[in-house]
Design goal:
The structure is a homodimer. By secondary structure, chain A is of the alpha+beta class. The longest helix of chain A has 27 residues, at 312-338.
Chain lengths: 598, 598
Amino acid sequence: MGRYQSFDVMDCRDQVAERVAALRKLFATHKIDGYLVPRGDEFRGEYVPEHAERLAYITGFTGSWGLSLILKDSADLYIDSRYKIQAPEQTDTDIFDVICVPEISLDTRLAEKIGQNHRIGFDPMLFSRKEIARFEKTGAIFVPVSENLIDLSHGEALPEIRSEILIHPIEIAGASFTEKKKQIIDILQKKNCDALFIVLPENICWLLNLRGNDVPHTPFILSRAIVTIEGKFYWYVGKERVTPALKEHLGPDVICRDSDDIFADIKMFHNQKILYDPIDTAFAIEKALQDNGVKLISDDDPILLLKAIKNNAEQAATRKAHIRDAVAMIKFAHWFSTQQQDFTEIDAVKQLEDFRSEAPELKDISFDTISGSGANGAIVHYRVSHKSDKIIAESDLFLCDSGGQYLDGTTDITRVFIRGKATAEQKTRYTQVLKGHLAVARALFPIGTTGAVLDVLARAPLWQAGIDFGHGTGHGVGLYLSVHEGPQGISSRSKVKLEPGMLLSNEPGYYKAGEFGIRIENVELIVHKGIPEDGEKNMLGFETLTLVPYERKLIDKSLLSREEIHQIDTYHQRISDSVIPLLDAERASFLKDQCAPL
Amino acid sequence: MGRYQSFDVMDCRDQVAERVAALRKLFATHKIDGYLVPRGDEFRGEYVPEHAERLAYITGFTGSWGLSLILKDSADLYIDSRYKIQAPEQTDTDIFDVICVPEISLDTRLAEKIGQNHRIGFDPMLFSRKEIARFEKTGAIFVPVSENLIDLSHGEALPEIRSEILIHPIEIAGASFTEKKKQIIDILQKKNCDALFIVLPENICWLLNLRGNDVPHTPFILSRAIVTIEGKFYWYVGKERVTPALKEHLGPDVICRDSDDIFADIKMFHNQKILYDPIDTAFAIEKALQDNGVKLISDDDPILLLKAIKNNAEQAATRKAHIRDAVAMIKFAHWFSTQQQDFTEIDAVKQLEDFRSEAPELKDISFDTISGSGANGAIVHYRVSHKSDKIIAESDLFLCDSGGQYLDGTTDITRVFIRGKATAEQKTRYTQVLKGHLAVARALFPIGTTGAVLDVLARAPLWQAGIDFGHGTGHGVGLYLSVHEGPQGISSRSKVKLEPGMLLSNEPGYYKAGEFGIRIENVELIVHKGIPEDGEKNMLGFETLTLVPYERKLIDKSLLSREEIHQIDTYHQRISDSVIPLLDAERASFLKDQCAPL
C-alpha cells in the first residue's frame, strides 16, 4: 500500500550558508541590497509543490508559514509561534536570526533591519501589491525581479511537475460548470463588471468541476483564469495539460492557455472592468492589469461564498464520506485500545492510513496526521518524524488529528485516546474541552449570525476554569478540495455570516506544555433547524457529520449537566445506528460499548 | 414631595403645519431648498434642555432620536424602530412622511428626496462634519446657516436656563481635578499633542469634579473646554455662571469663558496640534479650527476611558448608592405585592419615586421610569403618560425599568412583577431570560475580552428556545452622571476591551408584542477574579452591585441547572445579608421570604 505521509524531515541545515552565499552573489547584478523569500508559491495555497519550496531551500525551515529577508550582511527568518522550537532547529542560526512574529512586530523589525533607500528585491509573482505596500512603509525601495533568484541561484532547480486533470462527477458536484458560470455572470452583471479574475486554484476546480493532484493532500490544479460576462473562460493552466477528451468535455467557451499567456491576454480587457481580489493577486499581474488600462474593481472573489455553501448533492456526498471515515476511525480506536505490544506515533499514523485506504474512494489524506502522545500532544501543529517519534505510553494522552480526501468529501477529525487509566486532571480537562465542543454543536442561532459570535460558546466553559486555547474554534472545510477553506470560520476574526450548507470544524482544545494536549474536533454542517417548539424565529444550527464516539475513559460525568449527558448519549446512539452495520462483529461490539449511554 | 417625572406628553400636532410653513418662509432669504433638523442639541447628550427641543417643536415628535428633512414641497421625519407607533401619532402625517430607518436606508431615502445641486441648510453647531460628509453623498450642497432657523421661525424661543454649579465631593470622586488633569497631560505628551478639545459635558464634569442640572435626569453642566499640555483649562461655560467661591475653588489654571469665546480662542492654537473627536465635534467648531491653521489629530476623547474605569473611592460610593436603591426597590416590591386596591402604571411610578426620595442623597431619577403592564411592557422604550396609563391587572406582567441619581452613584434596574398567578408561558419566558442574565453575571473572561464577545452569553439560552431580543445586552453606567455612558458595552458593536472598574448593565429581555414584556437588569462592576482553582490564567468577572431579588413567582425551577439555582440562591443570600438590617420588621420578613433558597 502506498504511503500518503512521509516521516522524513528535509535536513539541509548544513547547506544553508552556502546557498545564502550563492543568492547574495546575485545581488550586484540586480542592483539590490537584499531579497525577500516567502513560503508560498504563486497560487497561495497551504501546500506548495516541491519545486516551489524555496523558503525551505534557502533557510532549511519547513513550516507552513514563514518569510525570510536576506540582506548582504545578515538575514532574518520570520515565523509564527507554532514554530518557535522547530525553526531554530532546522535553520542555520549563524546565518539566520529567527524572529517570532507577532511577538516582535514584523513591521517594526523590517523597519529596523532595512535602511531608508535600500533596494530590496522580490519575485512579483509571489507577493501581492498589498503585501509590498505594507513593506514599503519601512521607507525602502522594493524592486520586482522577474526571475526568481532562488531558482536562479539553485542551478539545477526541480522541474514543475503537473498531474493528470480529472473530471469531478456531476452527481457529487450537484451543479454543472454551465450552471455555476451562470451564477458568476449574474454577479458580474449586478456589480457592473466585465470579467472576473480568478486567482485561487480551488475556485477554478470548483467552477470547472475538475480535480488534479499538483500539490500534496489537496486535489488542486494549479492555474489561474478569467471568466467574462459573455461566458468565455480563459484558463491559464498549460495547453499541453488539456487532453482532447477533456477539451471536448469543457466545450468551446473554455479557452486553454499557457500560464504566461495571461500577460498578453490582459490587453483584451483594456478599458473594461475586472473584478479581482487584491489580497491574493500577484504584484506582477495587478501591475499588468493597471499598465494595460484595465479598470480594477476590488472585492472578494464571489466564488469563495458560492463554493462554501454546499448544495444538496454535495451535502449528501460529504455525509457518505464522513460515514466511511468514521469506519476507519473506529477501526483505529479499536486497534489502539486492543494492542498488546508497544507502538509509536508513526505506527499509529500508518495504521490509521491503512484503515482509511481500505476505502477505494480514498484519494489521499487531507493533511499530515498530527499524532502526538504526551508532551507532543501539547504542540498544536506537531508533525511526527523519525526523529521525534516515540512509543505511546499507557499513561499518555494520545492526540490524533487527521482526515481523508475522498472523491465525495474531505474529512477532518481530532480524537484523544488513552491506553491506560486517565488521571483526574486529564479527565477534568477533557470534560471541560468537551463542554465547549458540545455547546457549539448544540447551538441554535439566528440567520445573520457570524462565527465571531459563536466562538465564545466553545471558550466559556474553559474560561470558567481559568484556561483557554490559543487557536480559533473552527475553520471552513472543502469538498474534495482544501481541508481549510474560507470564508467562514468560528473565531474572533470570522465576520462572514453563517449560511445553511456551509461546513465548519468545531475543535476547542487545551494544551498543557510538556505534559499533554487535548482537542476534540468534529465537522459540522450548518442547517435550517426551523422554529423551536413554542419559539418564534427560524433558527440555524449544526448537523454533526463526524460520527466517532468521544473517549469515555476521559469523561468525568459529574462535570456534565443533564442536557450535556443527553446530548452525548444522543450523538453516540446516532453513531451506533449509522456505523455498527458497517463493522464486523468484534468491532461492532467494541463500538456498541463505546456508544452505551453514559 | 417634588416630582422628577412628568406624565404629560407635549401635544403640538395641530401646530405642525403652521410651524413648518413659517420655517419654509425663511428658505428664500437663506437661498436654500430645504433644512435639516436633528433631535440633539450642540452638547450631543441624550437629554436636551427645553429650549433646544427643536425637533419636537417642528414635528411634534418627542422621541429620543430623530431627524427631519424639510423641503419646499415635502418633509420627512426619520425615526428608528422604537418609535414606529409613537411618531405617526405625534406628528402631522399630512406634512411629514414618517420613515423608519434602517428599515429604509437613510442614505437611500435622502438621495431620493434631495436632488443633485439642491441646497440644504443646517445649523453647523448641531451636526458634525462627519455627519454632513455622509449627507453630501447625495450630491446635494449642504449649507451651514449660522442662525438656527427653528429658533428664528419661532419668534419667541424659550430662553436658555442654566443651573447652579456644584462641587462633587472628593471623597466620592476619589481623584482631584489636578490629578485627573495630570493623566490628560500625560496622554497629550504620549500622543505628541498640544491640547485636547473636550466636546462632551460629562467629560468636563468628571474632570473638574463638578455637577449641575442643566438637563433633566443627568447632572450635566452644558459646556465645552480646551485643556492644554501646560495645564491651562479654557472652560466655555458662561462667565456669569462661575461664582467667586467656585472660581477660588478651581484655581488659577481654569479660565472661565463664554460659550462663543471658543471661536476667538481657537486662534491661540494656530499651528498647534489639538486632539479632538470628529464624531461629536460641531461642524462650525471643526471648521474654525481648520480655518485657523490648527493641526487636528482625531481620536476618541481619552477622558471617555479614564472616566469609565471607576477608582476605588468611586467603586465604594456606587456600592452604597446601590444598597440605598435596593432598599427603595424592595419597599416598592413589598408595596406592589400587598396593595389591595387597584393602581395604575403612574401610581407605581409615583410610589417608587417616593420610596427613592426617602433617601436624602437622591438628586433625581436617572431617566423616566419605564412602567409598563401587560402589552405596554412589550414596548421596549415605553413611557407612561396620562393618555396611556392603565390599571395593572392581577394577571399582568409589570415591567419596571428605573434608576436613581444619588450624589454617590447612578443606578439602573429592571424587575418584572406580577400581582396574581403567572401562566406557564410567562414563567418559561421569564426563566429563559433569567438564564441569559445569569450566564453573563457568572462569566469569567480573560483580560482583553470585549463586550461584543460576551453578548451571545445572554442570548444563547433564548436562541435555543427560538426567541431573541432586539437591543444590546448592556451599556456602561456613569457615577452621578449619565446612566448611559461609553465607551464599553455588551453588544455586537462593543469593541472596547473590558477593564476592572468599569460598570455595565446586564439586561437581556423578551417582548411578546400585544401581550407582555420581560427584562431583568442589574448593574455589574468588572473586577479581577484571580486564577480560578486549578486554573492557569487570571480572569476578569463581575461583582453585581444591584441587590434586589428576582421574582420568585416567575421562576420555573425545572428549567434551571443546579449551577443556576446555586447562583440565584447565593445572590439572594447576599441581598438578604446586606439589606434586611436596613428594613422595618414587616419588610424584612417580606425580603426574607423573597430570598429563601429556591
